[in-house]
Amino acid sequence: MLQKMPLEKEQTELLLKMVDADRNAPREKRQPFCVYRSMADDTMSHSGLQGGSIKIYFEDLYILEDYGLIRKTRSERSGYFEFIITPLGFQYFKDMKHQTEKPVQRLEETARGYLSDAVFIRKYPTAYQKWAEAESKLWDDNSSQQLTLIGHLCREAMQNFSVELIEIYKPQNFDTDKTKTVSRLKSAINSKKDFCGHTEKEFLNALIHYWGTINDLVQRQEHNSQREDEPLTGEDGRRVVFQTAIVMFEIDRSLSRILDK
Q1: How many domains does the chain contain in total?
Q2: pTM (whole model) above 0.85
Q3: Residues 245-257: pLDDT tens digits?
């Protein structure tokens, strides 16, 4: 395992985004990261990045390069640069991921990081706001009232996600009732099914069923499990927050991949 390098948080996050983007393509189709500098800002572009590009602080690239994690392969006076990740960079990424002891924790951090990314927040601002508020409540007391509030916020996050999903994908026919999230999700997904293969269609269908199950869990928690006469616990709160994050994570990534084809 490599010794941890004294990188700033933002530099580590930039490297993780670059490696994740690079791994989204087969090895034979890997491409350099294109960086454009201007008076306004610095932008990195790559087909594997969420949304295709991100804003960066250019000097962070120099730090990563000094540590041998990336290498500049092209530089032009016009402010255009190309960078690739070195084998050391890939190894450092692997070591960083394995520093978290439990695989489930790594999965949770991946989903949380994806939802907290600027691109996701820009696409689903209200859904993210409600989910983040629910997540923050996990660290308060586990009173019945608090756990009920977490359920309510997750329900609102799912409703707003379906609203913003409709606005992005614009299906021709959809349920105008924002509480009918399963129906609205199905409309958004079905509008893009013609652009994917059989296996991917089956996965999208499974996501619809998964969403419906999470929706039932969230409503159970919001109503304090009255129908099942079971007391809520802190684990119930953690579960609905985590599962709400995962289902939004998977739906957005799946539909984004279809659009990027």
Answers
A1: 2
A2: no
A3: 989 988 998 888 7
Domain enclosing residue 89, as ranges: 9-98
Instruction: Tell me how far CA of residue 58 lies from CA of 11, 12, 39, 175, 201, in angstroms.
Output: 10, 14, 12, 45, 40
Query: Quick check: is 211 in a domain?
Result: yes
